[in-house]
Specification:
87% helix, cell membrane, Non-ribosomal Peptide Synthetase Peptidyl Carrier Protein, Chain A, single chain, elongated, transport, mainly alpha, membrane
């Protein structure tokens, strides 16, 4: 049973997932700082205050916290979308180049086989 667990834990997918979780946690700090320190103050300038959660409430219902959570989520989702778009742009050319090289090798082998017949 220990051997099975060791094989599972050391598989590439599990290690990749672990790295992704750690990187995601680190990236979360960057995005949170972006939202709290740059974007929310700019939005606060439009509404006259930075902290919706503190002053936006009625009858004990703190709807400002809910509004701020929605705004935070939308900003984080958009920031991640932009980050993934940029990452895909950087990574994709290398993948396409590798695929072209692999196809070229296969076609060269086919050509050589046909030539030898």
């Amino acid at each position: 049973m220990f051997q099975e667990f060791k094989e599972f834990a050391l598989k590439g997918n599990v290690l990749d997932l672990a790295v992704a979780v750690v990187m995601g946690a680190a990236f979360n700090k960057i995005v949170t700082s972006l939202v709290e320190n740059i974007i929310m103050p700019l939005i606060g300038l439009l509404f006259g205050e930075v902290d919706f959660a503190e002053n936006w409430s009625a009858f004990g219902i703190k709807y400002g916290i809910f509004i701020q959570s929605i705004i935070d989520f939308l900003i984080v989702a958009f920031a991640l979308f932009i980050f993934v778009k940029i990452a895909n742009t950087v990574v994709k050319p290398a993948e396409v180049e590798e695929e072209i090289e692999e196809n070229t090798l296969i076609l060269t082998e086919i050509r050589d086989i046909l030539r030898n017949k």
